[in-house]
Amino acid sequence: MRQTRANSDAPSRYPGIDLHLEAAGTRVSRSLESALREAVVDGRLPSGTRLPASRTLAADLGISRNSVAEAYTQLTAEGWLDARVGAGTWVADRPGRSTPAAPPAGTPAPVLDLRGGIPDSSVFPHAEWTATMRRALAAAPSDAFGYPDPRGAPPLREALAGYLARVRGVRARADDVVVGAGFGDLLARLCRALRESGVQRIAVEEFGHRRHREIIRDQGLETVPLPVDAGGADVGLLGSSGARAVLLTPAHQFPTGVALSPERRLSLVRWAGESGGLVLEDDYDGEFRYDRRAVGALQALAPEHVVHLGTASKSLAPAVGLAWAVAPGRLVPALVRAGELSGGGQDTLGQLALAAFLTSHRYDRNVRRLREHYRSRRREVVEEVAARLPGCRVSGLAAGLHCLLELPEGVHEEDVCAEAAGHGLALEGLSAFRAEGTGPDGGRTAVVLGYGAPRPHLFRAALAAAVDSAAACAP
Ligand SMILES: Cc1ncc(COP(=O)(O)O)c(C=O)c1O
């Protein structure tokens, strides 16, 4: 059996792709033929792929050039390959082979999107980020190219500590900042650290991201839901819940859009101080408040009992893939260790770019620009609903990238979402965010309007589709 990778070191005019093939047995050309056929069928060689020159492949496989030429000729005759004299050999187009199946008739794939928690990726500051990245890379000391600091690049931790103190009132020292590859990464690490310290249960809000609850459970912790009302999560129940930690979105509950009331903030801090409990403050969109200054971070009330978590996903883009935690110092080693054990790496160069973006205040300017962008979208949502859906109400703070569209009695959110799907709009009802095992609350039905998601040219169409869908379901 002869195995090789046809690689680009082979001497040839066209060195060729890197391809693992096996040519076995006595009829070498036959064996090569079937290896190539198999590679086309299983998709390793998609149509349009240029194959290595016969001389190159022969040298790589240690077989005669004739055997390769014979195999190519046979496969060309069978229509698997396409040989152009003097130019090379390509995998032929084989209609019907690699084209994905069309969706069943009657269910248009959604082209419009108003799901919650998704930012408009078209407003990413492309040119500024590219320039910053280039400068950060050029200025990076050689140390920056070695194995990274497991807490995150020091310049980014410094920059975040300054920014979060200035903008969100967080009590932050660079030493207490840990950078992660997104909120989910940090949540998983925190849960691992909690479990290893003996914690078994963590309280969550009755409504939130299913994925976050899954991450918690995947780390071996049990989730205990707290009811959510107009004052946020009912943290008064923490004492009897058996939970020693709680995950909350206090500035802007996701997705109901309310803020944790001042009384509950105090009661939460009291619970943490008296019981030694830990609060995970998910400040996912704390920079986006439109009617007044955002309420300051909860962490400032009890830095020893609160982990403040933030992300670049809304203020820049999910593709930046960076989030941060400001943690009580005693937790930092376990958080770092959990990151190392998860096997994840660090994007040091991206982190240096974010540090430069923050210290040059481009980050502030970008947030201000996005605030205007989303503020005006929210205004349009409110106006459109007031004009066309008299029985409905927009609720939630004037903040973030989503609000709730409260439906009149008798209108079911599943019907509105199904109607929206018929308009090609992806829309989710409030119950899609409900924690497992919690019952529906007294007839409250609503859909989440994630006005952040659509590209600018699709926003109006998406909003119109949502409003039409709700109107079509009115009693
Ligand atoms: C409530 C909430 N928390 C956290 C995040 C996540 O951030 P990341 O994009 O860093 O995973 C989101 C993003 O949608 C969110 O809606």
Lay out the secondary structure.
Elements: E1 2-6, E2 19-23, H1 28-41, H2 54-61, H3 65-77, E3 81-84, E4 88-91, E5 112-113, H4 126-139, H5 154-168, E6 177-180, H6 183-196, E7 201-205, H7 210-218, E8 222-226, E9 228-229, E10 232-233, H8 238-241, E11 245-248, H9 262-275, E12 278-282, E13 306-311, E14 323-326, H10 332-341, H11 348-359, H12 362-388, E15 393-395, E16 403-406, H13 413-422, E17 425-426, E18 428-429, E19 446-449, H14 456-472
Parallel strand pairs: 5-17, 7-8, 7-11, 11-12, 12-13
Antiparallel strand pairs: 1-2, 3-4, 6-14, 9-10, 13-14, 15-16, 16-19, 18-19
Helix pairs in contact: 1-3, 2-3, 4-11, 5-11, 6-7, 6-10, 12-14, 13-14
Pyridoxal-5'-phosphate (PLP) binds next to α6.
Write structural notes for this entry.
- This protein has 475 residues and is an alpha/beta fold.
- The chain has 3 domains: 1-101, Arc Repressor Mutant, subunit A (Orthogonal Bundle), CATH 1.10.10; 124-360, Type I PLP-dependent aspartate aminotransferase-like (Major domain) (Aspartate Aminotransferase, domain 2, 3-Layer(aba) Sandwich); 369-472, Aspartate Aminotransferase, domain 1, CATH 3.90.1150.
- Helix content is 38%, strand content 15%.
- The protein contains 14 helices and 19 strands.
- It has helices spanning 28-41, 54-61, 65-77, 126-139, 154-168, 183-196, 210-218, 238-241, 262-275, 332-341, 348-359, 362-388, 413-422, 456-472; strands at 2-6, 19-23, 81-84, 88-91, 112-113, 177-180, 201-205, 222-226, 228-229, 232-233, 245-248, 278-282, 306-311, 323-326, 393-395, 403-406, 425-426, 428-429, 446-449.
- The strands form 6 sheets. The protein has a 7-stranded mixed β-sheet, sandwiched between helices. The chain has a 4-stranded antiparallel β-sheet with strand order 15-16-19-18, with helices on one face.
- α7 (210-218) links the parallel β7 and β8 (222-226).
- The longest helix has 27 residues, at 362-388.
- The radius of gyration is 28 Å and the shape is globular.
- Residues 6-13 and 96-103 have low confidence and may be disordered.
